[in-house]
Design brief:
- By secondary structure, the chain is an alpha/beta fold.
- The chain has a domain at 3-110 and 169-204: Nucleotidyltransferase, domain 5.
- The chain has helices at 42-57, 80-101, 110-117, 136-140, 156-167, 184-204; strands spanning 3-9, 14-20, 25-31, 65-71, 106-108, 122-123, 145-146.
- The strands form 2 sheets. A 5-stranded mixed β-sheet has the order 3-2-1-4-5.
- Helix 1 packs parallel to helix 2 and helix 3 (110-117) packs across helix 6 (184-204).
- The model has no long low-confidence stretch (mean pLDDT 94).
Length: 206
Amino acid sequence: MGKILGLDVSTKTIGVALFDENGKLWELTHVTPKVKPQPKIKLEELFRKVDIFERYLTKYIELDIDRVVIEEPLLSSNNVYTVATLLRFNGMISKVTEEVLGVTPEFISSNDARRYAFPELEQVRTHDKKGNPYNEKQMKNKKPVLFGAYPWDVDKKMIVWEKVAELEPHIVWEYTRNNTLKKENFDMTDAYATVLAVLNRDKLGK
């Protein structure tokens, strides 16, 4: 049976989710490449991180992976350098994934990943940012939006984590000394959402 690999790529951590074609989760983990000694040139550090991830990917060569889904970089940062670096690294990871696994990756935006993975997250907002309810006239023009049932400032990554944790109760999550979730967990759940999203989207014929 073919497998689907989902990746959530950031320059610090890469979330990894492996499913079979029936939607069964085989593995949910992350790779946090650490380059030592750390190069003075940022691009060189990215190259070394790609090398580390390439070696990690070799464990999947014999697993009959025929589909790879990567979350598109979120380009909301005001820092042009940060955006450029993330795009560059995402491209490198995409290329090395194709070279190692022989599969051309497909991409999905974070919004589409959440929308198709967890369609119940799309609901009509009933209150404005200040918590005031919309009147009847305003409500007529409202359409369902992601996280519409939650407060405007909700931690969206935490909501996605809660959804995945509910679906996969056997997963052992990573915590800090203060008993808070490590950020790596959110990279993992974002990777999970990418695969679940394309599986659900395929069922809808979109």
